[in-house]
Amino acid sequence: MYRLSSVTKTFKKNNQLVTALDSLDLVIEDGEFLAIQGRTGHGKSTLLSVLGGLDRPDSGTVELDGNLLTRMKESEVTRIRATTIGFIFQAFNLIPTLSAQENVEAGLVPLGLSPDERRERAQEALRSVKLADRGHHLPSELSGGQQQRVGIARALAKEPRVLLADEPTGNLDEDTRDDIIDLLEEVRQRYRLTMILVTHDTSLAHRAPRVGVMRNGLLIFQESPRPERRVPNWAPGAYADDQ
Amino acid sequence: MSTSFFLLYLRRELLRRKRQAVVIALGLAVGVGLVVTVGAATDGVQKAQVAVLHGLYGIGTDLTVTTAPPKSDDNSKVVTPTDTPQHHDFLGPSMGLGVLDAAKLADIARVPGVQAAAGGLTLTNTKINLAAAKDVKSLPIPTSTTVNGLDVAHQGLGPYASVKIDKGRSFTGADAAARVAVVDSAWAAANKVKVGSVLVLANKRFTVIGLAGQGQNAPNIYVPLGPAQALSSFQSMKTLAGRVTTIYVKAANGAALDSVQKNVTRLVPGATVTSSSNLAGAVSGSLASAAGLAKDLGRWLAIASMAAAFLMASLLTLAAVTRRVREFGTLKAIGWRSRQIVLQLMGEALITGIIGAALGVALGFAGSALVEWLAPELRATVAENPGSAPPEVSTISGGGVNTRVAPGSTHTVAVHLTAPMTLSAILLAVLLAIAGGLVAGSFGGWRAARLRPAEALGRVA
């Protein structure tokens, strides 16, 4: 479970202070699927970075399963990223010189597995995204959708508890986009993952039970068109702002 | 980190950035090749110096002890043209050399740190044919032959140490008092002398027992010290019995050399005690100029080129890290530690350095071959007698009334410059290139380690 309390993050841009996260309070339950929308520059990616331990807030606390990420050493946060959090990127971020299978294995390197175990887990992850027969292909030999599947396999192979997806369908056509989001939902449910999805795409966002909109560093929640799948949550700051 | 994955990733990245890896490796190779070539040329110049000096002072000699002649006797002879033609045959200590009491040898041998000491007599036999005064149109050129009297019990000290017998035999202990001679092969060929020939030196007959190959600057004739001491024909020095012109000293080790030099200087007041490094300074001519060039310009050229190669490799590696920001940001995001990324970069830099080393060694070989091919013949001028300063003028002076004959002074010899590639030069090349690669890798690693993943991913997203 994530618990964010009074998280503030500012940046300097053109000599002006920009508030990306403004005293944000947020709770994300285990297994929850949360979509975050918002215009460019309103703090979506910053929130994802803070959740993933890629960036530290200026103030406030970020807690994951009882671990205060904001007070941990960098090496400990790195360890949590290696074991607990899976990242999925808009541009796939595959290493172009490595094959699909080797890219998935790259995500397992920090775990210190034996080469055989690493290979087996990578193959299993590729099977789960229906790319078992493309393991030896380089990213340049795969379509955009296939590359994103490799990215998902890389995130899944480490058996994380959290998936952080930053515009995972932003570079894909409409059909492929649906395939990818179906796949994400499927793996989330199969592995009971907590998933935070950042997207511009409203139709995609509305597949999540809870949807928040980032606006000037504030997270504003709105009713989901899929209330039956909504997970109970607690986000007083956001709700207050939403009124 | 998994070794197998490290090697796989390393290989793929180097192949992907083949052109850049080759450019960095070539940059390092050029720097290293230049360092190695300059090093080889410097080594060659030093070897040439040593070869020139060894011919005169002998291998294994650490110090030479000499003394200047009294001002009233500079071992020269004044010959005045008369009404009748004259033939003169002088033999005595070579120019610039005085004599030392051989008893000093025992004192020097007792100096702490002295392993061995031996006396030698360096003589010059000068012959001149002078026409009658009315017929003198130009000054005749005397012919000089150098004769070295050596202690046959210490053949490893002095110029005889560099002798290799081509024909016949060398001296034995039994030859100490015998009138026998070992003759320089080139001199023997020029003077039609063979093993068994008889040489006449100051009216004494010597039998040639061996022909010797040696350096260009070496004495022409070697005879045992005892018979040599009985050869002087200079009026002012009727006998050289119990005298030597040079004492050759070998120190027990290099560390003792300084103290030995000081103690020997104290023991023989007024004598010149010269070490091999002092002797190197006495070499003049184009060889000395080449040595200076290699030492000064060459060294700075090598340092500058190596620094340029390091800088270029570092900048290219930094540029590569900048191009790979997203890749490293991604690796950090998926849990790679900074040190794993640094290790990866250092590995790539190390391989590039090794390729640079291989190319650098090849360039070094090519450079040294080029130096040997292009280098002009150098000339070395050295004092004929160790410890004496090389006189500016040696031969004959005078204006038709008096002719001054100076028996020996300096030698000028031609030296072919070599640039030998040694194992140490190759090792230096390998180490430099690898160091260059690692320096470049460290800069890249430092840059990558400081990379904040959120920033790295945000920069390109």
From TrEMBL, chain A:
Superkingdom as given in the UniProt entry: Bacteria
Pfam families (UniProt xref): ABC_tran (PF00005)
Cellular component GO terms, alphabetical: membrane protein complex; plasma membrane
CDD domains assigned: ABC_MJ0796_LolCDE_FtsE
Keywords: ATP-binding, Hydrolase, Nucleotide-binding, Transport
An example molecular function term from Gene Ontology annotations: transmembrane transporter activity
Alphabetized Gene3D superfamilies for the sequence: P-loop containing nucleotide triphosphate hydrolases (3.40.50.300)
Residue intervals of the ABC transporter domain: 2-241
EC number: 3.6.3.-
Protein's name in the database: Putative ABC transporter ATP-binding protein YknY
Automatic annotation (TrEMBL), chain B:
Residues covered by the MacB-like periplasmic core domain: 23-266
Compartment(s): Cell membrane
Residue ranges occupied by any ABC3 transporter permease C-terminal domain in the UniProt entry: 302-439
Region entry Disordered, spans: 68-87
Highest taxon in the source lineage: Bacteria
The UniProt record lists the keyword Oxidoreductase: no
UniProt keyword list: Cell membrane, Membrane, Transmembrane, Transmembrane helix
Membrane association type: Multi-pass membrane protein
A single MF term (Gene Ontology): transmembrane transporter activity
Pfam families: FtsX (PF02687), MacB_PCD (PF12704)
Transmembrane segments: 21-41, 300-321, 341-366, 425-446
GO cellular component labels: plasma membrane
Family note: Belongs to the ABC-4 integral membrane protein family.
Name the record gives this protein: ABC transporter permease
Organism: Actinomadura macrotermitis
